[in-house]
Amino acid sequence: MADEYRVFNFSAGPSVLPEPVLRKCAAEMLNYEGTGESVMEMSHRSPEFQKIIDDAEANLRKLMNIPDNYYVMFLQGGATLQFSMVPINLMTGTGKADYIVAGQWGKKAWEEATKFGDARCVASSEADKYTYIPKVTKEDIRDDVDYVYICYNNTVFGTHYNELPDFGDHLLVADMSSCILSEEVDVNKFGLIYAGAQKNVAPAGMTIVIVRKDLVGKAPANTPIYLNYKTHAEKGSMYNTPPCYTIYVAGEVFKYLLANGGIPAMHEKDVRKAQKIYDYLDSSELFRGTVVKEDRSLMNIPFVTGDPELDKEFIAGAKERNMINLKGHRIAGGMRASVYNAFPEEGVDALIAYMKEFEAAHKK
Ligand SMILES: Cc1ncc(COP(=O)(O)O)c(C=O)c1O
After folding, report:
1. Does 267 lie in the same domain as 255?
2. Which of 77, 111, 197, 334 could in theory staple to 328 by disulfide, Cβ–Cβ 3.0 to 4.6 A?
3. Is 175 a catalytic residue?
4. Separation of 176 CA from ligand 1 center, angstroms?
């Protein structure tokens, strides 16, 4: 059936969502739970939507074990707006923050933060094309910073903090856009975690912000109302019309994850999928992964042949085989397989089979 046509979608985001969730949303499109209306059409002030957002928050808290002394907010403006909101709201004590730059998103966050105070780049792997996470210890951090900033998983370059450094008592802020819900994290170790929805959570349009309650309310008085965490915290993410449909889909994804073993089960599958690809890359004579082994990401796996023309041929052939969005980010080149939670293991097997076929056809 034409409408059952599905490809293996390796997109880095927006990206693949769990098929049972898509089917449920489709089934509920015209008549959500007997209301006779779509969630797309529903007033955000209705009791039905209030339940949707309350359940979404409660289920995310359950999934991630988020303690009561943290707010969970569903905000707009993409993860990018957090590049500004984080310093505006948190760089308000000494006005200093230290950023570790392990990819282009971290670099953008740092550059944005320099507009609001003394944001320093402590270390960067840019000179080595972001092929690793710069190793930083608490001794490298200035004593009096308001926070230390990391990007936990670097979507473009495929690196990930496989071990969280000990930053001592420093407040830690992490961008988890491309790895949230793929691994267990101890929320208590962070002052603030944020993540754009469009990878492991939902369609684009919403950013999850998890912030320790005592950190909220410190923004300067002239902060635009919409950029102040306090505004959203006090109104349960409903100061104004929220991204209702995205919140609804996120809530369905959370329910689906809870019913299917939660984060531990996702992680086990994610490890298995990524390991298959890395094992093949490590044994291949044509393809190679571009990241140092200890910093490899489970979610975004970049690789190259070393010949840009061959890379192009590989990507075109993949498309013919219903494997799409394998082209690396425009600033990284080569290929990138993004294999988020909802990406099926059969897609990984299909990719490896095609890589083997391609390698055999291009033996030197
Ligand atoms: C790690 C990371 N941070 C931030 C962003 C920016 O997200 P948005 O497009 O939602 O602003 C992205 C987008 O891919 C990302 O991967």
Report:
1. no
2. 334
3. yes
4. 9
